[in-house]
Amino acid sequence: MKQSRLLIQTLRETPRDADVVSQQLMIRAGMIQKAAAGIYSYLPLAYRSIRKFEEIVREELARDGCQELLMPSVLPAELWQESGRWTFYGDELLRFCDRKAKAEIAERRGRGETPDERSFYNFCLGPTHEEVITDIVRKNVRSYKQLPMNLFQIQTKFRDERRPRFGLMRGREFTMKDGYSFHVDDPDADREYWAMFNAYKRIFGRLGVKFRPVEADSGAIGGSFTHEFHVLAGSGEDAILSCDACEYTSNIEKTEAPALPFAYAQEAVLPLKPSHFATPGVIAMEDQARAFKDAEHDGLPPDHASKFYLLDVTSRIQDEVVGESTQRIGLVIRADHEPNFVKLRNLLGAEAVELTAIEVAEEMAGAKSGFIGPVELNVPIYVDRSLEGAFNLTCGANRTDYHHFGFKPDRDLKQFQGFHDLRMAQEGDTCPRCGKGRYQAFRGIEVGQVFKLGTKYSKSMGCTFLDDQGREHPMVMGCYGIGITRTVAAAIEQNYDADGILWPWPIAPYQIHLLNLDPGNAEVATVADRVERELEAAGFEVLHDDREGLSPGAKFKDADLLGFPLRLMVGSKGLKDGVVELRDRRTKAVVKFKPEGAVAEVAAARNRILEALEAAGGR
Ligand code: ATP
Ligand code: MG
After folding, report:
1. β 380-384/415-420 pair status
2. Roughly what angle, to the nearest 10 degrees, separates helices 484-494 and 21-28?
3. What does the H/E/C string look like for 263-277?
4. What distance in angstroms lies between residue 491's CA and the mean position of ligand 1's atoms?
């Protein structure tokens, strides 16, 4: 391919509104173009990488007998109402109505009514396809003999993200591989789960990026068991903790925090008495304990300070598809810990846990925020297990400018709900799984996720099969996603230097950047054209920079920015000595050889690159 014909505009300057490296480099390298917030066109170079990654995904899934199909991106509300998610999915689901519904709205308006337009929405853009695939399978599969079945698609998804950003990493429109499997029973669904887990390891391993499978929270989609696959990169939005002694690796949302002994057990337990001490202006939670002063104490260690959260919990009404209820609860943790609302949500089996609005909390407690505490409050209160056995704690006194001293959770709470693991684990915590190692922290970009779904969708949507006795059962399901476009961006987040991208060979838009350094020179052009043909005939992908009127320096800069693994330079200076030059983008190693040796030398360089990739083993 001649670069003079390629649709590409490279930029020297970093675009102002690009916040992460992949976004900056993809824009500078002319790979993507924004159409609207979080909505991008994939220009030819980016699309080549995306398609290469898709092919890797297809090849590996084919090895496990998965079948590819393609579902619509515009989905009818009825299917989403059947599963209940029309109500519960939230504002990421872009809902709208078609012309028939619009005509009805217009007609009602004509009659002087003021209909609520939202109640006429009858379609949405698909953010994920559990409903559609379940509908397909319930209509096409009847017998246990047809199961198991694993179906996937590679398709454009739309999620109206609250904060679309980071280019392809968090778009509103993006490409996802989503797969769904159907089984006669749990053990078979488990078998498929691990088959997909291993397929994902092969897929990300082939990509040549460092990644980790991590235990994860199952989130709003529901389900019992799940792993996320993360590409490790400093810019990742997710925090991952990994034990340095055992295999345990998990998303911090779900990482088990060890129980901690209360350090000051030698002190006498104070009886419960209203023991308020004045703390005007003490807002930072950690300062509470230090601010406590009496005849014996001149401040307390920070693990004597507790903090308290009032929370609104939203739950689905049991066995009803539509309808939810809200309840107010409290959470107490050590002041120097961070709360983990995901753990709390899972403990409660709730849909969502959110902070109560400040005004509401202040009114309930009769004190300003910063001085709100759990003692005397008549709501169910959950306590983090690091406070098990703790006493003489400080907490807000429900009186502005005062804290309470002498708090002992299991004794003093009106509606004590027990000690549970409800805090964020931290780097350096002892791993509770093996009891030996300590947690190390990583940042990761979630590029894929495997879920065991169970019967959530098959039950609500009546997706059943008949067993060998003719009895009807709901199918057991799994679902498996890969963010195709996010993965390509994540590969860049992990592989770049000051000059540009360092493409992993398997998804480089082209493998070889052939630079004609003297396009005006007929001999150079002849050699460059011949080398291009020979390399292409040998199966290599070549972008030939034949552009005229550009200095070699400008071509080098563009080549570094585009970052294809190998750069082959043909110029009059080299040809005078009878040689061309091959440069490895990552190692910067250079070899010179006769133009006739190009195919063999490029093949040798490719083998070195692939060996290094294999040695890295995707870890
Ligand atoms: P996130 O937590 O990052 O919002 P998610 O867990 O909601 O993602 P899934 O429903 O698991 O996403 O979707 C499968 C995959 O699709 C994700 O692992 C991710 O790689 C990709 N993906 C999800 N949301 C986006 C997005 N807004 N832009 C690009 N890729 C996305
Ligand atoms: Mg996910």
Report:
1. parallel
2. 100
3. CCCCCCCCCCCCCEE
4. 16
Structure confidence at residue 219 (pLDDT): 61
- Pocket perturbation via mutation, ligand 1, pick of 176, 177, 228, 230 by most ligand atoms within 8 A of CB: 176
Q: How far apart are CA 175 and CA 446, in angstroms?
A: 14
How many Cβ atoms sit within 10 Å of the Cβ of residue 349? Answer: 10
More confident residue, 389 or 554: 554
Task: From residue 310, give the alpha-carbon distance in Å to each of 337, 339, 380, 536.
Answer: 16, 12, 10, 65
50-64, 221-235, 335-349, 527-541: range with lowest mean pLDDT: 221-235
pLDDT digits (tens, 9 = 90+) for 504-555: 999 999 999 999 999 999 999 999 999 999 999 999 999 999 999 999 999 9
- Looking at residue 165, what DSSP letter applies? B
Side chain identity at 77, as an amino acid letter? A
Ligand 1 contact, 159 CB (< 6 A): yes
Evaluate: CB of 157 within 6 angstroms of ligand 1: no
510-616, CATH topology level: Rossmann fold (3.40.50)
Identify the pLDDT of residue 541.
Answer: 98
Output the CATH code of domain 47-94+125-227+443-491. Answer: 3.30.930.10
> Could you say which DSSP state residue 229 is in?
E
* SS3 label, residue 57: helix
Q: Counting atoms of ligand 1 from 1, which one is nearest the CA of 219? A: 6
For residue 176 and ligand 1, the question of a CB distance below 6 A is answered with: yes
| Closest residue by Cα to residue 54 from 506, 512, 570 | 506
Give me the percent of the chain exceeding a pLDDT of 70: 95
As a whole-number percent, the residues of the chain with pLDDT over 90 amount to: 82
Phi-psi group of 272: left, alpha or beta (phi > 0 → left; psi -120 to 50 → alpha; rest → beta): beta
Bigger pLDDT: 611 vs 293: 611
* 446 Cβ inside 6 Å of ligand 1: yes
Q: Is 127 in the pocket of ligand 1 (CB under 6 A)?
A: no
Atom of ligand 1 nearest to the CA of 171: 28
The strand pair at 496-497 and 173-183 is best described as unpaired
Q: Which of 215, 143, 155, 211 is nearest to 179 (CA)?
A: 155
Cα(516) to centroid of ligand 2, in Å?
A: 45
Domain spans of the chain, in order of start: 47-94+125-227+443-491, 95-124, 266-420, 510-616
In this prediction, residues 429-439 reach a mean pLDDT of 95
Running DSSP on this structure, what letter comes out for residue 356?
Answer: P
- The first and second tokens of residue 378, run together, are 């008549």
Q: What is the pLDDT of residues 314-337, one digit of tens each?
A: 987 655 555 678 899 999 999 989
Distances (CA, A) of 589 to 477, 565, 568, 586, 605: 50, 11, 12, 8, 10
Fold of the CATH domain 266-420: YbaK protein (3.90.960)
Query: Cβ(129) to ligand 1 under 6 A?
Result: no
Give the C-alpha separation, 502 to 505, whole Å: 9
How far out from the chain centre does Cα 510 lie?
A: 28
Q: Is 449 in the pocket of ligand 1 (CB under 6 A)?
A: yes
